[in-house]
Amino acid sequence: MKIESPRSPTNAECFSRPKRKALCIGIKSNKDLNKSSLKRVLGAHNDAHKMAEFLKRKGFEVNTMLDDEQGPLPTRNNIRKAIQKLTAGARHGDRFFFSYSGHGTQIDNEDGRELDHLDEVILPYDATVKKGYSHHDRNRWDRDTIIIDNELHDWLVDTLPSETYLTVVLDTCCSGTAMDLKFIRHVDENSSKDCSNISDGSNVPSIIPGRNGDTIPHHTRRRSLVIRGFSLDHLNLQPEPKDGPMVYCWSACPDSEESYGNESGGLFSQVCVNHAMAWVDCFDKPCPTKLTVRAAISDIHRILEDRERDINNELSRRGKAPLKIHTAQVGISAYQSLRRALL
């Protein structure tokens, strides 16, 4: 039997265009929704569809998973298989995208590696409440049916080779560190100074969908913002990677807070895709850069802050309590390449 030596790649293969692949997940309802006291996430499917449409315009091949009986349900096992398919055959230069819109929560951490002693989790369609547990108990979820932050990191990040790029968007509650990336950056909420109601002298309003489908004008304003950050790895268990994938995780809110949305979709997803032009710019470059990431998080914060003001003005007119929309966060896998931009 003749044994042939491995074939060397052709020039065409060596210089082939990098892949752009995405997985967008939207889960309105979980199987144990009634037992868990959770409400339906009415805009989750819209988030996935709109994100997919945006990514297709940017040249991504997109797989969408919804709990709508039209395809494989977004169960824990099916999500893991879809992630494996997403990253299969990853090579230098490839760009990947993962988004999740649905329920997120926290459970007690068991390995002592979390500063707050809690793990962040996302809830697949088949997330199951354990028998005998109160719906007020954070540990009511069967761990074999949910996806813990450590697992999401293992499935998405650890399978990627060096010089690949992964962007993650988590429009869900308790999502601040849900990818377990080492470094976190966010805008200091006390650093924002409203300098003017005029944006470059134009004062032209843009429109963001309101909570009941109505539209409320919002204005871009100049502000002085301070970027803060910290290392998630307080035990220094993860050495600074010298050669690995570059991963960004855009989260709708800090770990201890809730995200906001309505039938139109999650506010964070809407802001990113439709209004945060600096965030959109990240996809128009060969890879995200220090400056685009800094500009994007500042842009998102400004718009969310304005949106909070618009929503609360509307709620006040209706005699309802005000809403607090917390600042978004970005997790980063490697600190060194962003040091000058984010300090």
Question: What features would you describe in this structure?
Answer:
By secondary structure, the chain is α/β, with parallel strands linked by helices. The chain has helices at 11-14, 33-36, 44-57, 76-87, 149-156, 267-274, 277-281, 290-317, 339-342; strands at residues 20-26, 61-66, 95-101, 104-108, 118-122, 147-148, 165-171, 183-187, 206-209, 215-218, 227-231, 246-251, 261-262, 265-266, 329-332. The strands form 4 sheets. Strands 2-1-3-7-12-15-8-11 form an 8-stranded mixed beta sheet, sandwiched between helices. A hairpin with a 5-residue loop joins strand 9 (206-209) and strand 10 (215-218). It is globular, with a radius of gyration of 21 Å. The termini are far apart. 42% of the residues are buried. Mean pLDDT is 77; it is low at 1-14, 192-223 and 335-343.
Compact overview of the structure:
The protein is of the alpha/beta class.
Beta-strand segment tally: 15
Structural class: alpha/beta
Uncertain parts? 1-14, 192-223, 335-343
Strand order of the largest sheet: 2-1-3-7-12-15-8-11
As a percent range, the share of helical residues equals 25-40%
**Mass-distribution shape:** globular
Number of helices: 9
The proportion of residues in beta strands is 15-25%
Q: Give a quick account of the main beta sheet: strands, pairing sense, barrel closure.
A: 8 strands, mixed
Distance between the termini: 62 Å
Radius of gyration: 21 Å
H-E order? HEHHEHEEEEHEEEEEEEEHHHEH
Mean pLDDT: 77
